[in-house]
Amino acid sequence: MANPPPKVRELSIIGSKRCASIDCLGQKIMIREGLKETPLPVDRNNTLQDELSHFLDCVRDNSLSVSDGVVGYHTIELLEAAEKSLKEKRVIMYECTNNG
Questions:
Q1: What is the DSSP letter of 93?
Q2: Can you name the residues that pair with 21 across neighbouring β-strands?
Q3: pLDDT of 16-33, one tens digit each?
Q4: What pLDDT score does 88 carry?
């Protein structure tokens, strides 16, 4: 029986001056500017467990989540821009506004 392919969760963000390589499984971020590479400190965690704990704390304390509807709205906008960029094979500019 063949071995399954390795699990990979990586993201590259390319800007005009720098780029970031994010290894979600390894919980590592590398910032590149020209030939210079700088690791970005990341607090390792169990993301799903932390999200669920935060949600339960908000319910118990009747407090607002750090990931409220506005954050969700901007996340969907960003994902839609990324999808459009892939389909149209061009750069799509996205500017996050604070007015939801």
A1: -
A2: 12, 30
A3: 899 999 998 899 999 999
A4: 95
Tokens standing for residue 30: 């590398």
Q: Is residue 48 included in any domain, yes or no? A: yes
Q: How far is it, in rounded angstroms, from Cα 27 to Cα 9?
A: 10
pLDDT above 90 (res 59): yes
For residue 16, give its domain range: 10-67
Residue type, 83: E
Specify if 25 maps to a domain: yes
pTM of the predicted protein model = 0.54
Is 22 a member of any domain? yes
Cβ(24)–Cβ(10) under 8 Å? yes
Determine the pLDDT at residue 44: 85
Does residue 38 lie in a domain region? yes
Q: How many domains does the chain contain in total?
A: 1
State how far the Cα of 92 lies from the Cα of 17, in Å rounded to an integer.
17
